[in-house]
Amino acid sequence: MSEMGRNKEGRSEEQESTEAPCQGSSRQEEKFETLAIRTQIERSGFGEHSAPVYLTSSFVFDDAEDMRASFAEEKEKNIYSRFSNPNNSEFVEKMVKMEGAESGYAFASGMASIFSTFGALLSSGDHVVSARSVFGSTHALFTKFLPKWNISTSYFNIDEVEQVEDLIHPNTKILFAETPTNPGLDILDLEFLGQVAKKHNLILVIDNCFATPYLQQPIKYGADIVLHSATKLIDGQGRVLGGVAVGRADLIREIYLFSRNTGPSLSPFNAWILSKSLETLAVRVDRHCDNALELAQFLEEQEKVNWVKYPFLASHPQHAIAKKQMKKGGNIVTFEIKGGVEAGRTFLNRIKMCSLSANLGDTRTIVTHPASSTHSKLSKEERGEVGITDGLIRVSTGLENISDIVSDLQQALN
């Protein structure tokens, strides 16, 4: 970690500071919650208990030789906040430890982390194999933008994972999936994907946004890179945008060099917010999950609901896989309201307390109709292929009292 002021040997920050990408340190024996709270940059001479915000665009050098050596990467040093910043380093080191990774880099948004990962690791002529059920902007990246650079993508269906190996070609480089998926809440077997990636020497990239490292750690199952939209549960209060990639040090190095030159870095202020948010991630996500499970159980009993999907409901098609690789079921609940599009719109219009928003992972419960919002750029056929029906409702269960959440959805249904 970068050190502010003087360290134990009396050396200054300029002599011993951190250059991204951030590497994990040695306190692995500490528990998840402790790592989230006690991983901090060194205190400055002011002795602050909580890390301050380092709102600076650049950093100073001792002399011409110090400057030369820093740019030559002969020493670890903060140079420019597009490259690294103490606040970014603290946030990333926490994420590295939580995911059990080797290194990481922080981005201005979740999609910046996804694009930068693919931009850094793929070349013209490469091929990607991906689960069909992915976030709408990720789908757009695969189908509209990567083809400009002669990079192709093949999709496999969630319920036909045996297709994966049939889609692998000599030029396939990355195997990609998000689990749980957005918004279908399908669960992919991380252990199976890890075995396939290892067998075919592929880079396994997993979007872990819905689970967070508190509920699921894909690296344990063979993932090489794990991505997050930190905007969601990691922030947890709908305040800032952010993203992060963690994983193998050699791959993160490539992602860092790409990002250092293309500029999608996270702002120090947002990094400071996100690092503070991680201190309460475990307690928040526990409550999110408890509320979500109770809400899902309530919805299963409603006559105007065709079906409910939640990973820790026994009725979920991949319930056994979810129980194997997740600590709890997450905060997202999806269900299909009877009556299709019009019934879905009527339901949203009747919501009183909950929020209508495109975000998720907030303290406030958010209700979304994906067919007309987050996944509206997909055709009806494309939505159907990933399980998004006209009446599908996605609920990002918040931290309000569960009785108030249930009451609002109940009156909107009835």
Report on the biggest sheet: 8 strands, mixed
Compute the average pLDDT. Answer: 91
What proportion of the residues form beta strands (DSSP E)?
Answer: 5-15%
* Number of helices in the DSSP assignment: 15
Query: Are there runs of 5+ residues with pLDDT below 50, and where?
Result: 1-19
Task: Note the run of SSEs as H and E.
Answer: EHHHEHEHEHEHEHEEHHHEHEHEEHEH
C-alpha-based Rg, rounded: 22 Å
Overall form:
globular
User: How would you write the strand order of the largest sheet?
Assistant: 1-2-8-7-6-5-3-4
Termini gap: 54 Å
Judged by helices, strands and strand pairing, the structural class is alpha/beta
Compute the number of strand runs: 13
Textual characterization of the structure:
It contains 15 helices and 13 strands. The protein is α/β, with parallel strands linked by helices and 414 residues long. The strands form 2 sheets. The protein has an 8-stranded mixed β-sheet with strand order 1-2-8-7-6-5-3-4, with helices on both faces. Strands 9-10-13-12-11 form a 5-stranded mixed β-sheet. Mean pLDDT is 91; it is low at 1-19.
